[in-house]
Amino acid sequence: MIEIRYDTTLDESTKHGRGRSTPLAGAFLWLLLALLIPACGGIERGRVYVDRERADASTPPLPDAADAADRSVTIDTTDDLVKPLPDADANGDVDGGAGDSLEVEDGLGDGESDVSIDVEEPDLELPPLEVGSPIPAPAPDPLVGSGLTSCGVYRAERCDAGERYRCAVYDKKTQQFVETPDPLFERVLLYERWYDLYHSPNSMRVERQFKSATLPGTPESVWGALEHFDRFLGEGDSALHSWPGMMAKMIRYTLSGTEADYQRLERYVRDYLTLFAVTGIPGYLARSHGLYYEQTIEEGAPFTDQHILWYKGRDDLTHNVFAFDAAPIADLPDAYRDGLPDVTGKLVKGTPMWRGNPSIDSYTGATVSLPLVYPLLRDESLKATIRYQLPCYLKRLRRIELRNLQQNPIVLEAVQKLLGGAGYKVRLDPDDIDLTTLETVVGYYLPTYNHNNASTFDATCPDTVALTPTRVIDAAAANWQTKLVQLALDLQSAGAEKSSGIDHIYIPSVRGGDAIHMMHLAALSYMLTGEEQYRTFLFGELIGKLHADKVALTTMALLIPDWCGTYYGDHITVSPLWALIGMLAPSPLRTTLQKVMETEVWQKRIVNQRHIKFNLLYSVSTPEELATGKSVALAQFLADLPQLSGNSLDPLVPDDPRRNYDVPRSYVIDNLPSDTALRCPLDAERDFCEKGFEILGIQFPIESISGPCEGYPGECSFSDGMCSRPLPTNGLPPKLRFYEGSWYGSSPFEFGRTYPVQGTVQSPGLELIEPFWIARLYGVLDNGVGQILVWKPDGT
């Protein structure tokens, strides 16, 4: 039997189990699930270690709705998505080099391809593909000829010719500065200020950790001081989490039209694209980049909060981190070439480094935001970079096929266990595709770059999307399990560098979320380049042969109990789905994806989560005739967004940054909404989480959710004398949620957390900023309509 060892940690916020759900499984389990389970949002790829010794040997924009403020555009409302509010202002082979284990297997020689097995031939005449960015053209700059100058950072100050200016809110209609801005609009402007100044070094989103407690109401001059700063957190996910910042900046610019907002946006895009440039590999994205110093801070190494810095002895850079030459990359800051001043003022050079092993999450940031911002950019070189890098990523993906599944009785038995085993709830609709009859499963994977294959890694951009498999696993062959185990081991590249390692894999023929991703990649590549190969890949291969559109309709079919489920994958599924719906002109494919948003996302996943962003994206992308929950979702959004503030327990300082303050369990229980109660896990749910299931001789537990009883209010008890934490029946409103650096991927049900020191970590605040501007774009909110930031004379 293969032994699976889990890397698990207990969260201090819970009495039994973790407050933050970790993934259901990692590579090996995921591979098995991926064969037959048509789900994505509820399963996350995680850290599971396979014991090797015991293993068997361009089109014009197509806006759908609008803020309608401050611009003259024709809005397509044929799908009746979201109307503006009544008061809206009407103004080559890259698998790691020769000699590794990625050869074509089981009888396929060079040049041979057998990609038509178990797939239908598509119609010869493919449908047209009309795509464009849902972000409309920017409003004309309202300050042209006015003698006024726009600014980008609220409350910033500058001096010019002896006169002091302050960045303030200006109303275009009244042509007056606003003395008392709308409270929610002003909070967003403050959060944007803090994000720009303190949470995005070189436009990479990070959390800010302090050296000591930071209490509610602490002035910015104190918490923003370098003396109070300790380090950045979360930089390993900067490529992913920086994307909401770009979304907010592009929408703010398209609504305001000001020059300052454009320059703010362009700087962010320019910085973001360095995540591609630093790798030196077309289409290959870094998670983040920074400077590494061999000295410690105590030994006098430079210290700043303007760049991501790593230090010897403090930061683990043992693998998947690579040095690079910053000299030819003009958009990197001078500090990468010249160094930073130490305590004596002497410039000390660090080693520029980039963090690798990019995940699907990482790429989702780039693939959602960059195609949407593309039409807004004036710099043709930036547009050319986007036009090159994103399609290169799609073409860099290698193809894998798992064949003859119906000829293997062990696999058929696994089908029955996965689709009918204890603890699973499979929610397939009557007209869903029957994935249990598949003969071949097709996937696309990204080969990893690491120190073991650096000298042989293909750093060119392939000419075409891969249609010939690089790997073939034949389920009818005697060695199929060994081949599958080898693939699972190669997927562990995050924890151990292998020349044949794999960063991530999509399986669009069986997993709904992956089908959405691949269709999105094909559509955006066609939008950017107009190359026919991407339209052919979308309609001929993904939809015509792999039925990706039908697979997408099973995206949320698999339900995992909330006590051991995960929520991280939802954000990287719902957001690309929204983006793809917005990119497509009215068409059968768009209608199918809108059905996915209704039946899979709303009805099967988020209906009881009270998720601010997902409720909004669902509401603005699903037409009235499909959207059964639009009124509920919008009502929750409008009620919850204003609650996103600093310390939820101290209403006197709502405009503080959000930090890690105590939210006691008893407080949450005493303040649950009237429609929400506590619930306990059913025995079947506990059994599924703790015992898991056995497939192919492998036992897969997920996590322990029970422990000794402690007697706190609401505690759940079992007949064997053990207890578990309760969860609410509905997702919690913001004021009852404890701190997470990003709420997008955390459980909406976990509650109760205390800290030994208050306010030591600060959020970038994008969970407020981005939904606000998306809501403004679609006319869901009118706070601050017609108002922009302008330099205001403020004395001498």
Q: What is the compact description of this entry?
A:
Helices cover 31% and strands 13% of the residues. With 796 residues, it is an alpha+beta fold.
Describe the structure.
Among the domains are: 338 residues, no CATH class; 82 residues, no CATH class. Helix 2 packs across helix 21. It has 796 residues and is an alpha+beta fold. Helix content is 31%, strand content 13%.
Question: Which characteristics define this entry?
Answer:
796 residues; alpha+beta; 4-stranded mixed β-sheet; 28 strands; 31% helix; disordered N terminus
Strand runs, count: 28
Find the structural class using helix and strand composition.
alpha+beta
Biggest pleated sheet: 4 strands, antiparallel
Average pLDDT reading: 84
Give the C-alpha Rg.
26 Å
Q: In what range is the share of β-strand residues?
A: 5-15%
What would the principal axes of the Cα set say about the shape?
globular
Number of helical regions: 21
Distance between the termini: 78 Å
Percent helix, as a range, is 25-40%
Low-confidence stretches: 1-30, 34-122, 419-423
Which helices and strands, and how do they pair?
Elements: E1 4-6, H1 27-36, E2 48-50, E3 157-160, E4 163-171, E5 176-177, H2 183-198, E6 207-210, H3 220-223, E7 229-233, H4 238-241, H5 243-256, H6 259-277, E8 288-293, E9 309-311, E10 321-323, H7 335-338, E11 340-341, E12 347-348, E13 351-355, H8 360-373, H9 380-396, E14 398-403, H10 409-420, E15 425-426, E16 441-447, E17 469-474, H11 480-490, E18 502-506, H12 512-529, H13 532-543, H14 548-552, E19 558-559, H15 568-583, H16 588-606, H17 612-621, H18 630-640, H19 665-670, E20 678-679, H20 683-691, E21 693-695, E22 698-700, E23 706-708, E24 716-717, E25 722-724, E26 727-728, E27 761-762, H21 766-777, E28 787-793
Helix pairs in contact: 1-11, 2-21, 5-6, 5-8, 5-21, 6-9, 8-15, 9-12, 12-13, 12-15, 15-16, 15-17, 16-17, 17-18, 17-21
